[in-house]
Amino acid sequence: MKNFTVLPICVVLLFIRTSTSLDSITQSAPLRDGETLVSSGGVFEMGFFSPGKSNNRYLGIWYMHISPLTVVWVANREAPISDGSGILVTNDQGILALVDSTNRTVWSSSSSIIAEKPIVRLLDTGNLIISDQKYSKDHFIWQSFDYPCDTLLPGMKLGFNLVTGLNRFLSSWRSPDDPGQGENVLKLERRGYPQSFQFRRNVIHFRAGSWNGLYFTGYPVQKQNPVYKAKFVFNDKEAYYEYELVNSSVYSRIVMSPSGIGKRLVWSNQRGIWEIISANLADQCDNYGLCGAYSLCDFSSSRVCHCLKGFVPRNVEQWNISDWSGGCVRKALLDCNSLDSFRKYRGVKLPDTSSSRFNKTMSLEECRQSCLRNCSCTAYANLDIRDGGSGCLVWFKDLIDMKQLPQGGQDIFIRVPASELDFFEEKRYWNNNKRKLIGITVGSITINMSVILIVFGLIRCARKSKLKRSGKTKIYYSRNPCYNDLRMEDTEIQIFDLSVIVKATNNFSNINKLGEGGFGSVYKGTLGHGQELAVKRLSEYSIQGLEEFKNEVLLIAKLQHRNLVKLLGCCIEREEKLLIYEYMPNKSLDQFIFDEIRSKLLDWTKRFHIINGIARGLVYLHQDSRLRVIHRDLKTSNILLDTNLNPKISDFGLARTLWGDQIEAKTNRIAGTYGYMSPEYVMHGDFSIKSDVFSFGVILLEIISGKKNRGFSDLENYLNLLGYAWRLWREGMALELMDQALGERFNPSEVIQCIQVGLLCVQQRPEDRPDMSSVVLMLNGEKSLPDPHVPAYYIERKIPEADPSSEKCNPSSPNEMSLSIFEAR
Ligand SMILES: *[C@@H]1O[C@H](CO)[C@@H](O)[C@H](O)[C@H]1NC(C)=O
Ligand SMILES: *[C@@H]1O[C@H](CO)[C@@H](O)[C@H](O)[C@H]1NC(C)=O
Ligand SMILES: *[C@@H]1O[C@H](CO)[C@@H](O)[C@H](O)[C@H]1NC(C)=O
Ligand SMILES: *[C@@H]1O[C@H](CO)[C@@H](O)[C@H](O)[C@H]1NC(C)=O
Ligand SMILES: *[C@@H]1O[C@H](CO)[C@@H](O)[C@H](O)[C@H]1NC(C)=O
């Protein structure tokens, strides 16, 4: 009987959701808003959609079976339709036109060829095509692949056609709510030897450079990846980049995000998210032309820009104050005869090729000869690095935008006068060899970053020589596809000797133990000169594996805020993994608020100060820190208090960073602490900044009430702390929630406002919870507060428990729902 009551509701929902789908568009069967065109294999779907928070309607193509909606192409990106009146029509000449209610054509496909019997279809590649029966199947009169938006799909060409003049490039959306062309553009330029550029507001932002047979020289690829194969085609007719998938049933795309990060994503069925497999993580040297002419940018050295050997700064004063834009000039003029020589530089990103010429068949020696013959030739290199190198690329004019790459890169030969070469050939040989040896050790430290373990291993090796002096080293995280879950720039963390820590903690004695957590124990340590430390020692069998350890080190090293605990350094030696933090003499918040005596030390003013501090720390994590960090395990025992009772958020072992504009993610491994986890995280593994907001709400209510959410019992009504707080608030008795230990000195309206904020944070639906910057404004009375609804996990005795079968109607699982109905029909 139950099923009968449930089914009709589902059917109604289904009719709202699904719509008719067509397999082609013809004159008599246009595509209306609400209908979709589906590719024959059901991979892609085209129809009308509204992006993000916008209500505007756009005609777009998306993956049929991927949720959330992932749009790969938009027709009327600059001309939205404000209502549901849009119709895509085709005329007898095979021109598609998107028309709105006023018969205005907001978008149309342009093609000069007139079709006799046009057919409009959406292919399983995501390509919308117009073909004509009079041509072969593969000949398209028009195709959406020729007009990319922000997405490059497998089989799409990025580049130009010299015959038709077409130049296909990627351009970001303006924002997640507006698919109109934004400020970031990824494009091939055809001057000289073609190169790939990223433009921001029409200015070169980053030059990925020329193709060397395997990759664009500024985007070194370390190893064969299992997902895609890329190629670059350059002949008399066209120049373009294209990739295909190794496994065609995998979904992958390249997208230029509104914030200007070009990334390659692959859909993970298992995790239900788009995983980033590589992204253009710009470092300082990727600022186009930062070092001016004839210099090499090396972000792993303390002075970023270096003049090439035989060159000096054009303006020494500017150069000395780190204004490198003037670049470098030759110390001695070229002889301009066959006496000139070339100095070899290894592993570089080749300079801008807009003033270069190439020859695909010349050998390197022929290349050298041809460069020597022309006095304005400044450098040469192989065109293609495959099979030991082939082809010839020669530069005329100044060499700009060269970079020393941490891995990969190419060899280039730069012209210098004979007088510039070292006088004693032997001496040079020796110097070179010595330099090479040093280069290998030092180089490896800064270069080989693919596995953080290697980094730590090498640092240990190098420590003796390097760190003893300074006690500190810089670890640089390079652009690296293996480590792209963190957006890294140079980070400074101290590496401690295990022996120093053993001594400081009395060999991890029990007396020094401050606490124990899931990941191991925390010890107090005192260095020789009296500095106190908190040492987190990860137990061998701790849940915090190496992954989380890396995560925490890298994350915290980047995060600096007065409401976050400060990481001083780390130590990996033998089996030990240690994190060294500043010491917090007042330990954690839970040891105050849940303690009968110590709770009296926290009056309302102090508690309000703590609540505010935590909120500000979270605003920083969520939006101000450039990395978008979700803590995932906020609880009172992770809030530490310094001498002045300032709160500091700690324990980032579970924290995740989200990429750029990504705002939520999913995990199969739900880790956190019950009582603080939001319902969507507990049930579906969905976490977002709003799951942290939930935990914050719980902490806030715990601070006010002095009671633990977990373990709270209200025998009369079976309520948890959240339900209890809501009940009181609803009945106008919110002040009763307050901890008895607080006494009488407080501002009642401030407390009530605070409770209301807490309740808003623990709402069932993430979208009903405010974000942390709103929370800060609300706490300080700068933003009006909406009325909270029933909080999550609210069960009242008198209300019968929800019918579990009604979960089938849960709109969050539309796929399962539609599936069961299709089977039923
Ligand atoms: C739009 O065009 C159609 C056919 O051309 C016509 O029947 C209809 O009246 C027009 N509507 C408006 C609002 O102009
Ligand atoms: C291709 O990918 C699909 C889906 O991920 C997988 O099931 C299949 O085994 C893969 N095929 C090969 C040959 O790897
Ligand atoms: C620039 O710096 C170098 C090395 O530090 C120093 O020798 C030189 O005198 C400085 N020149 C000027 C003009 O400041
Ligand atoms: C490339 O170099 C070879 C050998 O020097 C020459 O025969 C050929 O004409 C050159 N090709 C072009 C396009 O200049
Ligand atoms: C050297 O190369 C430049 C630039 O390509 C060219 O304009 C010039 O004619 C060449 N000079 C000689 C002597 O070949």
TrEMBL record:
Segments crossing the lipid bilayer: 437-459
GO biological process, one term: recognition of pollen
PROSITE patterns named in the record: BULB_LECTIN, PAN, PROTEIN_KINASE_ATP, PROTEIN_KINASE_DOM, PROTEIN_KINASE_ST
Domain Bulb-type lectin intervals: 22-143
Disordered: annotated segments: 802-825
Pfam family, one: B_lectin
Catalyzed reactions per annotation: L-threonyl-[protein] + ATP = O-phospho-L-threonyl-[protein] + ADP + H(+); L-seryl-[protein] + ATP = O-phospho-L-seryl-[protein] + ADP + H(+)
Entry EC no(s): 2.7.11.1
Compositionally biased tracts (Polar residues): 807-818
GO molecular function, one term: protein serine/threonine kinase activity
Domain of life, source organism: Eukaryota
Signal peptide: 1-21
Domain (Apple): residue spans on this chain: 336-417
Binding residues annotated for ATP, in chain numbering: 536
Keyword set, alphabetical order: ATP-binding, Disulfide bond, Glycoprotein, Kinase, Membrane, Nucleotide-binding, Phosphoprotein, Receptor, Serine/threonine-protein kinase, Signal, Transferase, Transmembrane, Transmembrane helix
Occurrences of domain Protein kinase (ranges): 508-790
InterPro entries: Bulb-type_lectin_dom (IPR001480), Bulb-type_lectin_dom_sf (IPR036426), Kinase-like_dom_sf (IPR011009), Pan_app (IPR003609), Prot_kinase_dom (IPR000719), Protein_kinase_ATP_BS (IPR017441), S_locus_glycoprot_dom (IPR000858), Ser-Thr/Tyr_kinase_cat_dom (IPR001245)
Family label: Belongs to the protein kinase superfamily. Ser/Thr protein kinase family.
Protein name (database record): Receptor-like serine/threonine-protein kinase
